[in-house]
From TrEMBL:
Molecular function per GO: ATP binding; protein-exporting ATPase activity
Residues that hold ATP according to the record: Q85, G103, E104, G105, K106, T107, D492
Residue span(s) of domain Helicase ATP-binding: 87-244
Species per Swiss-Prot/TrEMBL record: Peribacillus asahii
A Pfam family of this chain: SecA_DEAD
Subunit structure: Monomer and homodimer. Part of the essential Sec protein translocation apparatus which comprises SecA, SecYEG and auxiliary proteins SecDF. Other proteins may also be involved.
GO cellular component, one term: plasma membrane
Record protein name field: Protein translocase subunit SecA
Catalysed conversion reaction: ATP + H2O + cellular proteinSide 1 = ADP + phosphate + cellular proteinSide 2
Highest taxon above the source species: Bacteria
SUPFAM superfamilies: Helical scaffold and wing domains of SecA (SSF81886), P-loop containing nucleoside triphosphate hydrolases (SSF52540), Pre-protein crosslinking domain of SecA (SSF81767)
Function: Part of the Sec protein translocase complex. Interacts with the SecYEG preprotein conducting channel. Has a central role in coupling the hydrolysis of ATP to the transfer of proteins into and across the cell membrane, serving as an ATP-driven molecular motor driving the stepwise translocation of polypeptide chains across the membrane.
Highest classification ranks of the organism: Bacteria, Bacillati, Bacillota, Bacilli, Bacillales
Domain Helicase C-terminal: 414-569
Length: 795
C-alpha cells in the first residue's frame, strides 16, 4: 500500500491513466443503473453491504457504487458527475488529495467516496472550513444520500450532547475540523461511557484541506476551564504597557511575532511592583503576565487579529477572514487584550485537554481531501500526513487571464492605482471583487472608494450577517465588492450572460498573502467552469507581507529600487523579489508548524496512554474496578519502600527518609499500622517490602469484601477519573512552562527536542506516580470516613 502511495506522490500521471480506466467502467455501467427504479437504486446499499460481508473489498465494488451515486444525483439534483469529478472521487477514495480548480464541483465529488465508505458502517466525516459551508453542503447533498438509504448528520458548535451523538450516529456527518477535534477532546473527559458522542475515526474527506490541515495547524485545539487568577494583574500591567517605548523598554521582531523586555523595561516593572528581580522563580506568574500584556500591546492588532463585538473580544481567522466562534487566545493573552481594550476581563483559561490539528487528523484510518491550492504545499502534505497530491484536469479550459503583479514603492501610489483600476473596469459594467487581507484594510479601502463616489459593498467579519445577500450581488453588472478572505474558499459568485459578454468577474488583489495558496483561492473566484475573467494584484513594498521579511534585506532592496513617475517599481526584478519574500515567510510558517509538532509529539503519545486509562476505567464492571485499585495501591506501597530504602546509596537530596516519616506515609493507605520506628532503623529493603506486602494482603482481603457495594464502585470510578484529570491538567501546565523555555536550550549545542522529550518523560513518570498514589490515598480516606461514621452510628 505504502509503495503505491509513494508512487502516486512522485508521479500521479501513471495513476491517472489507471483511474481513467475506472472512469470508463463507471460510464459503461450508466445505462444499467438508469433502468433501475428509485427503490432498486436504494436497495443497492443492502446488496453492497452483503458483498462486503462475504469478503469483497471496497475496491471490488467502487465502480458500481460510483455509478449508483451518479444516477441518484441526476435524479435528485439534476446534476451528472463529469468524468473529471469521477476521477476526483477515485483519488479521494484512495486516501489522497484531489487538487481541483475552484468551480469544478468538489461538493458533488464528495458524494462518491462518502457513499462507498459509509457502506462499511463506521461513519464518514466530511469536514469543511466553516459552519456555513458545512450546513450548506449538507443541505445540498443530503437528498442524494437519503435517496440511497444513507442518513446524514450535521455537527456544529452549540449543539447539546444528544444532538451531537445523533449526528455522529449518521452514516455521513458534515462539520468543521475544529468541532470534530473538540468533540474528541471532550469525549476523553467524560465520566460515563454513554456520554461520549464520537464513534471512531474511519474515513474523512477534508474540503479546503490546505486551509484546515496547514493554515489552522499552527494553533493547537485547547479545551480550557476557567481560572480567575491574574484578572486584576492584567489591568495593572495594561496601564504600564501604555508608558512603554519601542527599543527603549522592549524589542519586537515582527517577522516571528516575538517581543522581549529590555533591561530598562524590566527595571520599570520591578520598580512598579517593588521587587528586586523580575526573573526570580517566585515572580514567574508576574513575568508571564507582563510578557502576555506586552504581546497584546505590541503584536495583536484590532480589526486584524480580533474585533470587539458587543463588548467582547472575538478572534478573527486571518486565513478565512471569519470570526472564530467559541475560540479564545490561550495562556492569558485573551485577558491581556481585554485589559488593553478596556472591556470586561474574563476568567483566564486553564488547559484541561489539548491536541494539535495534525495529530487529530492522523487518528483517521483513511484521510483524504480536496482543494484548489494544494500544490504549493505538496511536500508538507507528504511529510506530515503521508498524503500525496494528485492534480485533476479541469472539465472546461480555464479562460481567466492572470496578469503579472503591479508592485508600487509606497501605499499612496498603490491606493491611487487601485482606485483608478476599479473606475476603469467598473465603467464598462464588469463586476469587481477587491480582495484584502484584514478588516482594517477593507475599511480603509472603502473610505478611498467613497471619496471617488464608487458605490460598493463590504464583506468582512463585521458584516457576515449579510454574507449570503452580498455574495448574490457580487457577480451582477456594475457591482463592486471589497472583501476579506471570507470571499475566498467555498464562495460561488454566479455571473449572468451579460456579465460574461463584458469579460466576466474582475479580481483585484490589494496585498499578497503570507501563502501563495490563499492568493490562488482569491484568483479562483473568477473563471469558474470556463467563464471568462481576469485577476490582477496591485501591491506595495510597504504592505504587511514585507514587514515579516528580514528588515536588513528589505532595506537593501529598497535602496536599489527604480520606479516610474507613478511609483511603479521597474527594477530590480520586483516579481522575483515578491516571490522570494512570500516563499521565505511560508517557509517560516512551515518551520513553526514543524516546531509545534515536534514539541507536541511526546504530549500526544502521553495523551493516548492517559485516554486509554480513562477508557479502561469507563469500560470496567464494578468488580474489575477494585482490581485496578488494588493494582495501583500495590505499586504505590512498593514505590514508597523503594524511596525510603533505595537499592543504591543516594546523595543528600533533602528527602526525609526517617522511619518516622516512612511509617506516617505508609499509614495513609492502611486502616491501621502497628509498626515501631526502632524495628526499621537497620532493616533491609527486602525485609521491609515483604512485611509491607503482608500487611497489604490483609487490606486486600478487606477491600475485596467491598466490591459488592455498587454505590461505592460508582464512587470509585468517579474519583479515579477525577484523579487522572486533575493530575493530567497539572502535568499539561508543567509541560507548557517547560516548552516556553525549551528553545533556549538550542544555544548550548544541545538538541532542544531531545531535551524536551527527556523532561516530558520524567514529568510523565511523575504524573503516573501521582495518579496511582492519589487514587490509593483518596480511596482509603473515603473508606476510613465510612468506617468512622459506622462506628459513631453503632455507639
Amino acid at each position: 500500500m505504502l509503495s503505491s502511495v509513494k508512487k502516486l506522490f512522485n508521479d500521479s500521471s501513471k495513476d491517472l491513466k489507471r483511474i481513467y480506466k475506472l472512469v470508463d467502467t463507471v460510464n459503461s455501467l450508466e445505462s444499467k443503473y438508469e433502468a433501475y427504479s428509485d427503490e432498486e437504486l436504494r436497495g443497492m446499499k443492502d446488496q453492497f453491504k452483503a458483498m462486503l460481508a462475504e469478503g469483497k473489498t471496497l475496491k471490488d465494488i467502487q465502480c458500481d457504487a460510483f455509478a449508483v451515486v451518479r444516477e441518484a444525483a441526476k435524479r435528485v439534483l439534476g446534476l451528472r458527475h463529469y468524468d473529471v469529478q469521477l476521477i476526483g472521487g477515485f483519488v479521494l477514495n484512495e486516501g489522497s488529495i484531489a487538487q481541483m480548480n475552484t468551480g469544478e464541483g468538489k461538493t458533488l465529488v464528495s458524494t462518491l467516496p462518502s457513499y462507498l465508505h459509509a457502506l462499511e458502517g463506521n461513519g464518514v466525516h466530511i469536514i469543511t472550513a466553516n459552519e456555513y459551508l458545512a450546513s450548506r453542503d449538507r443541505e445540498i447533498m443530503k437528498p442524494v444520500h437519503e435517496m440511497l438509504g444513507m442518513t446524514v448528520g450535521l455537527n456544529v458548535s452549540q449543539m447539546d450532547s444528544s444532538s451531537k451523538r445523533a449526528a455522529y450516529a449518521a452514516d455521513i456527518t458534515y462539520g468543521t475540523g475544529t468541532e470534530f477535534g473538540f468533540d474528541y477532546l471532550r469525549d476523553n473527559m467524560v465520566f460515563y461511557k454513554e456520554a461520549k458522542v464520537q464513534r471512531g475515526h474511519n474515513f474523512a474527506i477534508v474540503d479546503e484541506i490546505d486551509s484546515i490541515l496547514i493554515d489552522e495547524a499552527r494553533t493547537p485545539l485547547i479545551i480550557a476551564g476557567k481560572s480567575s487568577e491574574g484578572q486584576e494583574l492584567f489591568a495593572i500591567t495594561a496601564q504600564i504597557m501604555k508608558t512603554f517605548q519601542k527599543d527603549v523598554d522592549y524589542e519586537v521582531f515582527v517577522e516571528t511575532k516575538h517581543t522581549f523586555l529590555t533591561d530598562e523595561g524590566a527595571n520599570k516593572i520591578e520598580k512598579a511592583f517593588g521587587i528586586d528581580n523580575l526573573y526570580d522563580p517566585e515572580h514567574q506568574e508576574l513575568l508571564h503576565n507582563v510578557l502576555q500584556s506586552l504581546k497584546a500591546y505590541v503584536i495583536m492588532k484590532r480589526d486584524v487579529d480580533y474585533i470587539i463585538k458587543d463588548g467582547k473580544i472575538e478572534l478573527i481567522d486571518k486565513f478565512t477572514g471569519r470570526v472564530m466562534e467559541g475560540r479564545s487566545f490561550s495562556e492569558g493573552l485573551h485577558q491581556a487584550i481585554e485589559a488593553k481594550e478596556g472591556v470586561e476581563i474574563t476568567e483566564e483559561n486553564e488547559t484541561q485537554a489539548t491536541i494539535t490539528v495534525q495529530n487529530y487528523f492522523r487518528l483517521y484510518s483513511t484521510l483524504s481531501g480536496m482543494t484548489g491550492s494544494a500544490t504549493p504545499s505538496k511536500k508538507e502534505f507528504w511529510e506530515t500526513y503521508q498524503l500525496p497530491v494528485v492534480t485533476i484536469p479541469t472539465n472546461k479550459p480555464i479562460l481567466r487571464i492572470d496578469a503579472p503583479d503591479l508592485i508600487y514603492k509606497d501605499q499612496a501610489s498603490k491606493m491611487k492605482k487601485i482606485v483608478s483600476e476599479v473606475k476603469r473596469v467598473n465603467s464598462v459594467g464588469r463586476p469587481v471583487l477587491i480582495g484584502t487581507t484584514s478588516i482594517e484594510q477593507s475599511e480603509e479601502l472603502s473610505v478611498h472608494l467613497k471619496k471617488e463616489n464608487i458605490k460598493h459593498l463590504v464583506l468582512n467579519a463585521k458584516t457576515e450577517a449579510d454574507e449570503a445577500e452580498i455574495i448574490v450581488k457580487a457577480g451582477q453588472k456594475g457591482q463592486v465588492m471589497i472583501a476579506t478572505n471570507m470571499a475566498g474558499r467555498g464562495t460561488d459568485i454566479l455571473l449572468d450572460d451579460e456579465v460574461k459578454e463584458l469579460g466576466g468577474l474582475y479580481i483585484l488583489g490589494t496585498e499578497r498573502h503570507e501563502s501563495e495558496r490563499i492568493d490562488m483561492q482569491l484568483r479562483g473566484r473568477a473563471g469558474r467552469q470556463g467563464d471568462p475573467g481576469n485577476s490582477q494584484f496591485i501591491i506595495s513594498l510597504e504592505d504587511d507581507l514585507f514587514t515579516y521579511y528580514d528588515e536588513e534585506q528589505h532595506e537593501r532592496y529598497l535602496s536599489k529600487v527604480k520606479t516610474d513617475a507613478e511609483g511603479l517599481v521597474l527594477s530590480p526584478a520586483p516579481d522575483k523579489y515578491m516571490k522570494k519574500v512570500q516563499e521565505t515567510i511560508e517557509y517560516m510558517h512551515q518551520s513553526a508548524r514543524n516546531h509545534l509538532l515536534k514539541l507536541e509529539n511526546p504530549l500526544n503519545e502521553q495523551s493516548k496512554i492517559i485516554y486509554s486509562m480513562r477508557d479502561r476505567i469507563l469500560d470496567l464492571e464494578t468488580e474489575e474496578m477494585f482490581s485496578i485499585l488494588l493494582e495501583y495501591m500495590e505499586k504505590y506501597i512498593r514505590r514508597l519502600v523503594a524511596v525510603y530504602y533505595p537499592e543504591e546509596e543516594v546523595l543528600e537530596d533533602g528527602v526525609d527518609r526517617s522511619p518516622e516519616s516512612f511509617i506516617r506515609e505508609l499509614s495513609i493507605v492502611f486502616l491501621s499500622l502497628d509498626w515501631q520506628e526502632e524495628e526499621l532503623i537497620d532493616a533491609e529493603r527486602e525485609q521491609v517490602e515483604e512485611r509491607a506486602m503482608a500487611e497489604f494482603e490483609e487490606l486486600k482481603s478487606y477491600i475485596l469484601t467491598l466490591q459488592e457495594n455498587e454505590e461505592l464502585g460508582q464512587h470509585l470510578r468517579s474519583f479515579m477519573l477525577e484523579q487522572i484529570d486533575t493530575h493530567w491538567m497539572s502535568h499539561l501546565d508543567r509541560l507548557s512552562n517547560i516548552k516556553e523555555g525549551i528553545s533556549l536550550s538550542g544555544y548550548g549545542q544541545q538538541d532542544p527536542y531531545q531535551i524536551f522529550d527527556k523532561e516530558a518523560l520524567n514529568e510523565f513518570n511523575m504524573l503516573m506516580n501521582e495518579i496511582e498514589s492519589g487514587i490509593s490515598i483518596h480511596f482509603m480516606d473515603h473508606v476510613k470516613e465510612e468506617l468512622e461514621e459506622q462506628m459513631e452510628e453503632e455507639e
